[in-house]
Amino acid sequence: MIDHPRGNYSFIRGVAAYAAGVRAHPGYAIVYARLRRLAPLERGYQLIEQHLREQSRPPAALCGMQLRIPKPLTRDEFEGFNRPYIEQLRRWGLEVDGANPVARTNVAPAAPSISEPMLAGFFYTVPAATVSPTWLIAGVPEFIARDGKLAVAAPGDTSGDGLRNKLETILEAAGERLAQLATRWHDATAISLYTVHDLHPLLAPLILPTIGETAHRGLTLHYGRPPVSGLEIELDAWAVSRELVLDL
Fold it and tell me: Domain of 203?
């Protein structure tokens, strides 16, 4: 965990484009602001700036982003998409010790389609006397560590066994992030799955036993794909003190 005193949270170092997860400092809590309608990304950046000013919060309080893109990208296209995004975070002065502290989920809706990158929501910290910890983990696809590199679990296999393999990989990786954040599945206020495949046969034997009592709060399914071609499932989760719906 890396401390981000200006943002009032700590984060798990991820890759250049996003942190793997964040947890609010004691005396602070994370708020989720969801847009009623998706906003083009540049307009979304302006909405974030405006909302944080209205809440008397600095840009450094931003700790999570939810993006939507028109279609899954190749690795090179994904790197190209990330470059201006990372530059925007740098303009806000968000880097900490050369690391990106902002967690992110970025998926491609399968229907209805969109024509350009969009902002779906964002997370930020506020002063709060909440007792329960607040946190979020970035979107976790079916990557598995192999020989010091990341590989895709069950590549190209969307059979029942292939989907189970992918989902087991995702749940294990997400569980490791939760452990790093010193939290557990049942502390989540929301868990989302992003896929175009039927995961219902895996709900009772795999997903629900893993997430425990969070299942009582429901599981959200988004009909879409992870942002990189060749991936089939993504999962994210968070525990927040408040959720807001913002109109454009």
Answer: 2-246
